[in-house]
Fold Aldehyde dehydrogenase.
Amino acid sequence: MKIENYINGELVAPTSNSYLDNYNPSEGKVYGKIPNSNELDIENAYQAAEKAFPLWSTSSVEFRSKILQRIADLIIENLEELALAESKDNGKPLSLASAVDIPRASSNFSFFAKAITQFSSESHENTAIHTVNFTLRQPLGVVGCISPWNLPLYLFTWKIAPALASGNCVVAKPSEVTPYTAYLLAKICIKAGLPKGVLNIVHGLGAACGNAIVSHPNIKAISFTGGTKTGEHIAKTAAPMFKKLSLELGGKNPNIIFSDCNYEKMLQVTLKSSFANQGQICLCGSRIFVEESIYEKFKSDFIAKVEQLKVGNPLEKNTDLGALVSKEHLEKVDTYVKKAINEGGVLLYGGKKVEVNGFSQGYFYQPTVIEVVSNECTLNQEEVFGPVVSLMKFSSEDEVIQLANATKYGLSASLWTSNIDRSMRMSQQLKAGIVWINTWLNRDLRTPFGGTKSSGVGREGGLEALRFFTEPKNVCIQY
Ligand code: NAD
């Protein structure tokens, strides 16, 4: 199976005619080829986008909205094919791709199809000096969108939809590790009648075609989701060119559990926030802090639940954890687990690769729980981005706030308590872009999404995304 770039409305081979291997992580085998694109392909994509911009940016909001809604509908019509492709490419359970990834990719388009019809700007009148100021919100031009492998179509469309809705043309690059659904999206866009050149999807390596997007002199903004190190590199390249930057980066999110919480709900949700998508969600709660008085109870109840999780064939309905995304990632996760144990962590469950019947070469790993006594250990400081959580007890609110905030990251935090005063106090003090209280991954697309500190710069979602993808221009009239 060979996929192609989507440039100027057509599916085309890379100019070099060179291709990369694409792996099926549950089988541990190459199953397809993807374009190994270079600067020239990015230039072609840019030229197509630049040519499409005058018409697209001046088209009516209703027209853009209608096309985006058509794409959303086609994603739902093709849900089965897309979910299967996502599961095959990424290793995630098909059930998860069908229930979450693909429906959410469709919602991203339908949400911004509607949001753009409600987008407005400010005006300021000063009757004393007879002026009216109003703000134009104009599209930026050609923008770049770069996404990671963990929620491939979901995160790719989360950037593309607001960029297109607000009148920009896009050069986009999905992760080379999970390119398949982005290719299927290209086919959907053709079918939906998206004018040629408005969206261009180029496949290839980050250091080659990703970097070519970031360093392109005329690409006006970069919306990036991925690792903190890559984000740093992108910022270094793009900031001196004065590009607008939205960086959604890594996390080391605390999951804080007080004894006064709704225990059963907390236990169920904590299982998910630890291991959903094999723990490969930037919002997973990888550091679990439990109040001393319920620590031992939580430990035994949680392990009992973790033991029941099934690691297996992603296509089977009762599979809880599929394969990790790549062999390199599997090794990285395993190295972190060994290091945690070397540093004095106590392995409570997991810590081993799993050989799944019929998938002997697949990249499967046990859900893993490690008890730690210090927040300074590597496991509590660095992002593993796999099915590994740490457990640690705390004795007071002040102590746990300090622990929660003591990493370089600041993406999200979960808090389990029935005390409303404490919820408010802690929400104010937690250094995170998102705080969930008595819930996790509960997303309303209208809300700002993003992190602080090394978890990123800027916010996605709702009006924040539409503001990011537009340039405010103030016009002052004196009458
Ligand atoms: P990554 O940084 O390796 O790659 C992300 C994307 O950037 C890929 O498309 C890659 O090809 C591209 N890229 C790599 N080097 C580049 C360069 N020099 N210039 C331009 N593009 C380049 O990340 P990943 O391994 O794909 O994803 C995992 C990371 O993403 C984790 O750290 C995770 O926390 C983070 N993530 C963050 C969020 C969030 O919303 N904050 C969401 C999902 C994932």
About this structure: The chain has a mean pLDDT of 98. The longest strand covers residues 131-139. The pocket of nicotinamide-adenine-dinucleotide is lined by residues 146-150, 155, 173, 175-176, 206-207, 210-211, 214, 225-227, 230, 233-234, 248-251, 282, 383, 385, 411, 451, 456 (CB under 6 Å). Residues 8 and 320 are 40 Å apart (CA to CA).
